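Internal QA ticket QA-208
Title: Verify multi-chain structure generation after dependency bump
Assignee: T.L.

Test input:
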Amino acid sequence: MIMRKLTCMILTLVMALSLTSFVFADEVIDVYVYNNSGGVTGGVSSNAEVLKELQNWFVEKTNVRLNVIVPPAEEADTKLNLMLTSGDQIDAFWGDWIQYSSLDMIQPITDIYSAEKYPGIAKEFGFAMDQLTDSNGQLWGIPRMFDISPYPYLYRSDWAEAVGINEKPVTMEDLNNLLYAIKKADPAGNGQTIPLVTTSIDNILQCILGLYTDEGYSYWYDENNQKVKLYISQDGVKDAVAQIAQWYADGILYKDFNTLDTNALRELATIGRAFSSLQWYSGISMAWQNMYVADKTTDVQGEYSFLANEDGKTGSNKVAGNTRGLLFSSSASKESIEAVLKIVDFELTDTEARFNATYGLNAWEYVEGSTETAKPKGEGANTGTSLYNTEYRLSIGQLRISEFKELLTANDDRYVASNGEKAGYFFYYLYMDHHYDVDTYEPFQFNLIFDTNAISDEVIAYSDVNTKIAEDLYKFVSGSRSMDEWDSFIQELYDIGMAEVEAALTEQYNKQK
Amino acid sequence: MSGMARKKHLCFVKNIEKYRMFYLLALPGLLYLLIFHYGPMIGVLLAFKNFKPMQGFMGIFTGEWVGLTHFKQFFKSVYAGRVIVNTVWIFFLRLIWGFPAPIILALLLNEVQCAKYKKAVQSVSYFPHFVSYIVVLAIARQLFNADGGYVNVALKLSGHDSISFLSDSKYFRSILVGTGVWKGIGWSSIIYLAAIAGIDTQLYEAAEMDGAGYLQKVWHITLPGIAPVIAIQLVLRMGNIMNAGFDQILLFYSPAVYDVSDIIDTYVYRMGLGSMKYSFTTAVGLFKSVVGLIFVVGSNYIARAIGQEGIW
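Actual output:
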C-alpha cells in the first residue's frame, strides 16, 4: 500500500516537473523573411524535405524557426511591396532604407542592435553601418555592401598578348592602342570581333569620366554658386562623350549596345566575340568564369585594369556602399527582429551554420587544406545544392572578406584551367583585387545620402532631365546630334528644369553638412 | 407609393419570382462583378489623395486629400505631350495594321479546302500568341541587329550599309507594330473564323449560281455576315486607346528611341512605379480610363449609327 502511494507520488511529481519544463522551455520564435537579397534564385523552390531538415537544425541551434519567402523570378520588389501593403507577415527583407523609411514601412533598430550583442555582424558589416544611418543617428538595417570600385576595364589578355600587347592598358592612349589593334587583328575572325561592349553609355562614363572631370560620375559642388549639380554639367564630360562617339563611329563600340542586357552581353563573350567591356565588374567576368567552370580546356584569360591619368587619378571613382540592406518591417515585433539578427550573427560566427545555410544541411565539405572555405558535396540532380536554393543564407553581403580571401588561395579544383593554372574564382579575384589594391578616388557624392525619391516627388523636372540626358547622350554617341551642340544641350537641360533639381540636391546636401 | 409605382413594383417582384432560377443562375456572376469590378472602383479616390502604403485599405478614406495634384504633376512634365501622342499613335498603328490582319487571315483560312492543312496552318499561326515578348525580342534581335542580323546580312550582300533598326527612330515603330501583329494575328483570327462558320452556306451556293467570284462572295456575303463581330471587336478595342502595349515596349525600347516609343506607361514606370507611388499611378490610370471610356462610348454610338450592333 505504501509502495503504491509512493509510486503514485513519484509519478505525479515527474509529470508535474515535465509540465513545468514545457512551460519554462525556450519558446521557438517564428520569423518570416522575404529573401530578395540577390542570393536566391527567384521562383525556384528547394526540396521540401531538405528545407525542413535545415529549418529544424536552425531551430535546434537558435530556437528560431526561419520561414523564408522566395521571391518570384521577375517583379520581386513589386510582390514585396504588395505583400507589405496588404499586411502579410514579413519581418525582414532587403531594400533601400531611404525609400521604405519615407513610407513608414520599416522601423529603426537602433535600440535593438549593438556590437556587443551581435559581434559577428559588427565585425563584418560594422564599418558600413553609416550608410544605413540617418542624420538623426537612427540605424535602419544591416548593410549589404561596402565601398567598392566596381567599374574596371575588363579584357581578354590572351587576345591582347596575341597582338603583342602584354602590359595592362592604363591611360586612354594605352586603351585606344589596344582597342584599335584588336579591331585590326580581328582575333574572332570574319569581322566578328567586338573590341568593346557595354549595356549603356552610363556604364562607360562610370569607368572613364574621372579622366576628364574633377568628380567623375558623381554629383559635384559648384563653388561659384554653391550649388550641388548633376555630373553632366561638369567641364570635361563633352570630351568623354566625344571619345565614346569616336569609338562608335570607328566600329570599336558594339553598334547595338543599347539593346543589350547583361545576359546578352555575357552571351557575346561566351561565343568568343567580345574582347573587352567598360561595365559593372560582374558583367563580362561572369561569362569568362562560367566558361572555366563549364569547359576546363578554355583558353580565355581575363584581366582587368583601372584606367588612370598620368597623375594617377583613376577614371572610375569609389562607390560608397549603398543604402540597400536587410530591413525590418514596421509590423515586426522586437522579438522577431532580435531573432533575425540572431540568425545573421550565428551564420557569421559559426562556420557550420554558414555553410549549412549556403549549401544545405551537411551538403558541403571543406576545401582541402582549409577550415574556412567549403564546396558543395557531390554532383547531380539529387544532391546537395541541386535541391537547395540558399534560402536560409541571411548573412548575404558583399562583405564576406574573410571568405573571399580564402577563396583566392584555396586548393579548389573546380576552377583550374587547362594549363594547370588555377583560374580561381576569377570573378572574385577581380572583386578582391579592385577593392583592396586600387586607389580609386572618393568623389563629392561619396558618403552623402541623397533621397532621390523625395526629389522626384517634389521636382517633376527630375525625371524629365534624366530622360533627356539618356536620350541625347545616345544621339551624341551615334552621331545623330553633333558634338558642337553640346552647350545647347546643357542649356536645354536648364530650360526643362535642371536648376530646380540642383536646388533640391543642394537643400539635401546642406542638411548633411 | 402611388398606384403606378406600386403596380411597377409588384410587376418587378412577380418577375423575380417567376424567373427566380435564372436570377439565381446569374447571381454568382453578378456578385463577382460587384465585388471584384465595382467594389474596387472606390480605389479611384487614391488618385486624389496622398496615399501611404502602410495606411492600408483605410488609407483610401483617411489619406490626405490633394485634389488634382497628381494629375498636374503628370501634365506639368515636359514629356507629357510626347508620351500621350506616342501612346495614341502607336495604338492607331496597331489598329490600322493589326485589326484587319486577323480578318484577312480568317478569310483566307476559310477558303482552304484541305482540312489537315487548314488545321496545321491555324496551329502554327496561334503559336506566337503563347510566346512571351522576351522571346519575341530575341527573335527580333536575330533578325534586325546591325551586327549580324539576317536582314542586315541581306542588306550588306546587296551592297547597302547596315542599319540599327532597333535603335533607329525611323524603323522602330514598324518593328514594334510588325512583331505585335505577328504575335497576335493567329489568336485573334479565331473569333472571326467562328463567325464565318456561322454564315449560312446556302448563301454561298446561291451566289455561285449567280456567277459570283471569290472576292464578290467575300464582299457581299462573308463580310456582311461577320460585320457585327467586327463592330463589337472594334468598339472593345477602342477602349484600349491609351494602352499601346507596355510589356512589349518596355522590353524593346531604349533611350535611342524614346522619342517615338516612350508611352504613358513606360514614362510612369521610369518615374518611379517601383517606389510605390500608388496615388500618382492611380491618377494616370484614371486619366487613361476616362479617355478610354469616351472612345468606347463614342465608337459604340458610331457603330449603332451606321446600323451595326454595338455593345449596348
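Spot checks passed. Residues 153-317+414-436 of chain A form a domain with the D-Maltodextrin-Binding Protein; domain 2 fold (CATH 3.40.190.10).
Status: verified.
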